[in-house]
Each structure stands twice: as structure tokens, then as C-alpha cells.
Amino acid sequence: QVQLVESGGGLVQAGGSLRLSCAASGRTSSISYMGWFRQAPGKAREFVATMDVSGGSIVYADSVKGRFTISRDNARNTVYLQMNSLRPEDTAVYYCASRPAFLREYTNWGQGTQVTVSS
Length: 119
What we know:
Elements: E1 2-7, E2 10-13, E3 18-26, E4 33-39, E5 46-52, E6 58-60, E7 68-73, E8 78-83, E9 92-99, E10 108-109, E11 113-118
Parallel strand pairs: 2-11
Antiparallel strand pairs: 1-3, 3-8, 4-5, 4-9, 5-6, 7-8, 9-10, 9-11
């Protein structure tokens, strides 16, 4: 089993920056992809970014391209989400997730961290 713990959320003004961290523990050798998702109040969860932890292949949602950056530190089993030029519409609970290569769905999820962007 894999455990994921997010941190780094908080309250920031529009235009500001935050960096989220996701620390993985347990069977980390089973992780092939790690991703970030978010869910705003009253809305469905949506994809933000994902990366292949071995090769670094990265995909971003159109809504965050050019503003958010996903990165990894394999030695620390940690994935980061650097969020710049934040907008009020980025306000949501941000979740970290992981999956092995042979599954298309993310099977392990963190507890989430709140990001609030004030206008």
C-alpha cells in the first residue's frame, strides 16, 4: 500500500504563489505516475497535472499551463506543485494521487490540502 501526505496549502492573494508537497511512503516502488487534482466547492474533482516519476513525462490541464509546475525528488519520494500567478478560481482542495503503470486510474490518494486565493 502507498500512503500520500500533502502539505503546503494556505491562503494567498491573487497573483501570489504557493508550493504544495506530496510525500509518499509505503510501497513507493509501485508508483509509476503521480498527479495533482483539485476540487472546488460544489464542483467535480478535476485533473491539474501528472508526471511519470521515472521518465519525467508531464501533462498539465490547460487551465494551469504556464502557471503551475510539477516536479519530483525521487530520493525523498516527494512530488511538488509550484503554483504561480494564482487566481481566485484556483481555490480548491488539492489532492495528490499515484498509480502504477498497469492501471489507468489513480489508486492512492492523499487527504488533501486547502488552497484559497483571495481577490
